[in-house]
Structure formats: structure tokens, C-alpha cells
Design a protein that fits this description.
Blueprint lengths: L1 E6 L5 E7 L1 H4 L5 H15 L58 H17 L3 E4 L9 H10 L7 E5 L4 H7 L5 E5 L5 H5 L3 E5 H19 L1
Parallel strand pairs: 1-3, 3-6, 4-5, 4-6
Antiparallel strand pairs: 1-2
Helix pairs in contact: 4-5
């Protein structure tokens, strides 16, 4: 059972939050985490790299010189892949690198990533952001008070909070996401994870729902 300190916006200790990482994910499967992260990274690739074949490069198709009698090796057109300025023999074509793992495997990987953050003490809990309007400077003050200034951080909220999102989107190394949109790559990429108490409740609720579905 992990006992997490709960802070307010000023960085003051205002309580504690008890959570068992085993309730979020019974075990950490590094291979599954690796597979999930690689999948998300592959899905971000544009796949727009392209090189020209001999039919696409500029140049005449005329034979450079006659076949025999010159003392040189046989040569075709200037577009040949063996000549400078010619086309690529095995040209790179645009391609789609994306693929999908099973939905339940990805959901489990996300819970494993969160559980690993809890076990490694890389999670900071705040009672509430309580932002009445978007204010980037106020969000910077909160991060500084919590010792997260200059640290790559994932800010997780219970649901989409437009004020929090607009306040933090322009801060370097800060990613903001509601609990429902979290994935293994989002959780593992930054150094720290900042969550609200309501977000932790939502994470535990999702884990309990997954456990009950598995037992049925």
C-alpha cells in the first residue's frame, strides 16, 4: 500500500492518499509496456519518405554509348540506378507504419504504466487546481510550488478541464490529459506525473471495473 502526500496549489501538505499499486495493476509486464510504447510511436510516424525510381528521374533514355568496341563496361541510359544522378534501384515509397494491439492489452498496459509510477514514487498528488479562468502564469506558480518546474510532467485530470488545458499547453515539457485519454506512452514519457485526487479516484474506479469484467 502506497501512501501519497496530497498538496494544495501552494505546495503545502494538506493530507494523504492511500492507493495500492496492485489494485491498479497486479503486476508489471515490461514486454507488454514495450510493445504498447513501440505501437504508439509507430503510429506517430508519417511514413512520407520517398525516393525516385529510374522512371521518375529526369534524363534521356538513350543508350549512353554503343554496346561493343569502346573498351568500357556495358551501359544503358543515364537514369540507371548504378549511375550518378540515376534513380534508386530499391526506391523508398510512402507507407503506413500504424498497427493496433488488442484493446484490452492496451488498457492493461496503461494501468501497468500508472502502477509503475506509483511504485517508483514518481507521482505527485494535488487536491485541486481550482482555476476560474485560463492563466498560464498561475499554472507555472503551481508547478514551481510542487517542485515540478523544469521537469517534464504529465498533468492528469479526472475529465477534460478547459481552464487547466489552456493554462498549461504553452508551458515547456508539460502534457495535459484527462484520465480517459491516458495511454502507456503518455504516462511513461515524462519524468513525473501530476494528478488530482479526483483523477486518482477515476483511475481506481477504472481498475475495479476491469477487474470485475475479468472475473465475470
Amino acid at each position: 500500500m502506497a501512501k501519497l502526500t496530497v498538496y494544495n496549489r501552494s505546495g503545502e501538505d494538506v493530507g494523504s492518499y492511500q492507493i495500492d499499486p496492485a489494485d491498479v495493476a497486479p503486476r508489471i509486464n515490461k514486454q507488454l509496456l514495450h510493445d504498447a510504447v513501440v505501437m504508439y510511436q509507430a503510429n506517430q510516424r508519417l511514413g512520407s519518405a520517398k525516393t525516385k525510381t529510374r522512371s521518375e528521374v529526369a534524363g534521356s533514355t538513350k543508350k549512353v554509348y554503343r554496346q561493343k568496341g569502346t573498351g568500357n563496361a556495358r551501359a544503358g541510359s543515364r537514369r540507371s540506378g548504378v549511375r550518378r544522378g540515376g534513380g534508386h534501384i530499391h526506391a523508398i515509397r510512402p507507407r503506413d507504419y500504424s498497427y493496433r494491439l488488442p484493446r484490452k492489452a492496451l488498457q492493461l498496459a496503461t494501468r501497468m504504466a500508472i502502477a509503475s509510477r506509483i511504485r517508483d514514487d514518481e507521482i505527485v498528488v494535488i487536491d485541486d487546481f481550482a482555476l476560474d479562468k485560463p492563466h498560464t502564469q498561475e499554472m507555472s506558480f503551481i508547478l514551481k510550488a510542487l517542485g515540478l518546474s523544469g521537469t517534464s510532467t504529465l498533468v492528469a485530470t479526472e475529465k477534460h478541464d478547459n481552464h487547466v488545458y489552456l493554462s498549461g499547453r504553452n508551458i515547456s515539457q508539460i502534457t495535459i490529459s484527462p484520465v480517459g485519454d491516458l495511454n502507456a506512452l503518455l504516462v511513461l514519457a515524462p519524468q513525473k506525473m501530476l494528478v488530482t485526487k479526483a483523477a486518482l479516484d477515476a483511475i481506481q474506479q477504472k481498475a475495479e471495473e476491469a477487474k470485475s469484467q475479468k472475473s465475470e
